[in-house]
TrEMBL record:
Source organism of this protein record: Coniophora puteana (strain RWD-64-598)
Keyword Disulfide bond attached: yes
Protein name: Phytase A
Location of the active site: 66 (nucleophile), 333 (proton donor)
UniProt xrefs under PROSITE patterns: HIS_ACID_PHOSPHAT_1
Annotated localization: Secreted
Quaternary data: Monomer.
Length: 434
């Protein structure tokens, strides 16, 4: 059965009633978008709940992925080539291919798109509304971004939304105080471990499982297109990329079934898991630098780290203050995956199979790192005891590594639990340097 657009999804996923979202709704069924993995527009994996009785939030640590973007400069030409192969078929059997005669590739590369900017602005509004009691015109969020244009623009749009929601209580947006250079030491990017293996073998193995029957089906209908498995992965991705770029459902979505998208979903889950997640021996260590910065902020103690931090920046109160109530950092998906894995979030009992997706896994990229994904570490005062909880896409995480069942953990126990970060990844960082 081919996909049908069954209903309207509010792609913004905003849960806060008194915020007027600016990102448009796109008429795509949720049943497809949740299978877009890291290309899913943000949706909340849970509804935000107030802290438990007796606890007051005293500090917020936000780590947010950039909003929706065009395909990267590496992926874009490959996606275009696969689409041109399909368009070049001698004849088509099926009305869902009719659009191709008039289709051309019109996506840009790398940068944030208007939908991504709007979602970042909306996220700023939600976060101001939720945490207004922690900020005023002299205690603004301290904002950092990795230096990619799309990450910087996400930070600026978030800040604009944050100030907008304050209804002039904040006369101007929080400034972007630190931009971390992606060619230097940078805890908001994952470029510093060149010896880490890639996920290529695992994604290729899964592609060989799920894509050949799809290629056969489409080649039967598109005579002479000669699509292979790689083309199928590329064409599946064109559905989310065109949808978010043009803010209407891409025609490419209609040539695939829901099961086809489940294949794409697992492809992206594997890519994340084996690139910087638990499946990569040098994945989690690439999140250690940020975790050590988090520990510094939670304990109000200087940063202790020998991985990705820039000690010059982190040693100065101008570029790494410890007296703020709100820290906002903007980053990339693979970096967030490394940080989740360094922290111990989304633990897996075994490494993900490259042939049989486990439906019970907790590792779904669309719930970990959709476009504009936020992780928030709330520090709280709970009847005098400093405590934390961690929300990923608004879902409170269980923090089993901290002995917590309800997601609450004392700061002391949390720091204790982070031995992996505090030892520079049990020494794994040395192997990143060759
Ligand atoms: C949030 O709450 C609404 C209303 O109760 C419910 O429909 C929705 O499923 C909840 N969302 C999540 C992700 O739990
Ligand atoms: C077109 O596809 C349908 C099944 O979807 C098939 O029954 C029919 O024979 C095909 N026609 C041609 C000309 O290939
Ligand atoms: C082809 O695309 C152009 C530009 O997007 C549009 O103006 C035109 O109406 C389309 N023609 C058909 C037959 O869909
Ligand atoms: C801003 O908040 C800080 C800390 O809560 C407080 O000390 C300060 O007086 C506030 N400033 C204004 C202008 O309200
Ligand atoms: C934080 O400390 C610096 C001095 O290091 C001071 O200039 C600044 O006003 C303080 N900020 C807040 C929000 O207390
Ligand atoms: C928001 O992002 C867009 C790019 O999509 C950029 O042009 C714009 O300048 C950003 N807004 C702010 C306030 O920086
Ligand atoms: C650390 O940050 C400073 C200030 O931005 C910069 O000049 C320097 O190149 C950085 N060093 C490294 C190793 O990243
Ligand atoms: C990928 O597979 C090839 C061929 O089996 C092997 O030589 C290579 O070491 C593997 N790479 C990784 C990163 O596992
Ligand atoms: C699929 O075909 C393209 C050329 O159209 C080629 O570059 C690619 O390597 C092929 N992939 C596989 C798995 O054969
Ligand atoms: C999963 O893969 C990682 C990286 O290769 C390895 O360190 C770890 O031991 C594996 N875990 C299991 C349960 O096999
Ligand atoms: C940058 O990172 C490298 C690798 O961990 C480290 O050796 C170096 O001291 C760091 N530089 C600064 C300025 O922190």
């Amino acid at each position: 059965m081919q996909c049908r657009f069954l209903g309207v999804l509010a792609l913004t996923g905003l849960a806060t009633a008194d915020v007027v979202p600016t990102a448009p709704n796109i008429d795509v069924p949720f049943s497809i978008t949740q299978y877009w993995g890291a290309y899913s527009p943000y949706y909340n994996a849970g509804n935000y709940t107030a802290p438990p009785e007796g606890c007051t939030v005293t500090q917020v640590n936000l780590l947010e992925r950039h909003g929706a973007r065009y395909p990267t400069s590496g992926a874009g030409p490959l996606i275009q080539a696969s689409a041109e192969k399909l368009k070049g078929a001698q004849s088509f059997n099926g009305s869902q291919y009719g659009f191709l005669s008039n289709w051309t590739y019109q996506l840009g590369t790398d940068v944030l798109i208007p939908f991504g900017a709007a979602q970042s602005f909306d996220a700023g509004q939600v976060h101001y509304t939720r945490y207004a009691s922690l900020v005023n015109s002299t205690t603004l969020p301290f904002v950092r971004a990795s230096s990619s244009e799309r990450v910087v623009e996400t930070a600026l749009n978030w800040s604009a939304g944050f100030a907008f929601a304050s209804d002039k209580a904040l006369p101007s947006p929080p400034p972007l105080s630190v931009t971390l250079d992606e060619s230097r030491n940078d805890t908001l990017d994952n470029h510093m471990c060149p010896t880490a293996p890639t996920s290529q073998n695992q994604t290729a193995a899964w592609t060989n499982v799920f894509a050949p029957p799809i290629a056969d089906r489409i080649n039967n209908a598109a005579h002479g297109a000669h699509l292979n498995s790689t083309d199928i992965v590329n064409l599946l991705q064109l559905c989310p990329f065109e949808t978010v770029a043009f803010e209407k459902p891409s025609n490419f979505c209609s040539i695939f079934t829901q099961d086809d998208f489940k294949g794409l979903e697992y492809y992206i889950d594997l890519d994340d898991f084996y690139s910087t997640g638990y499946g990569n021996p040098l994945g989690p260590v690439q999140g250690v630098g940020w975790v050590n910065e988090l520990i510094a902020r939670l304990t109000v103690q200087p940063v202790q780290d020998e991985t990705q931090t820039n000690s010059t920046l982190d040693g100065s109160p101008k570029t790494f203050p410890l007296n703020r109530t709100f820290y906002a950092d903007f980053t990339h998906d693979k970096t967030m995956i490394a940080i989740f894995s360094a922290l111990g979030l989304f633990p897996q009992t075994e490494n993900l199979s490259t042939s049989h997706p486990d439906a019970e896994r907790t590792w779904f990229a669309s719930r970990l790192v959709p476009f504009s994904a936020p992780m928030i570490v709330e520090k709280m005062d709970c009847d005098g005891t400093p405590s934390i909880r961690i929300l990923v896409n608004d879902l409170v995480q269980p923090l089993t590594f901290c002995g917590a069942r309800d997601g609450m953990c004392t700061v002391d126990n949390f720091v204790e639990s982070q031995a992996y970060a505090r030892t520079n990844g049990n020494g794994a960082w040395a192997r990143c340097l060759g």
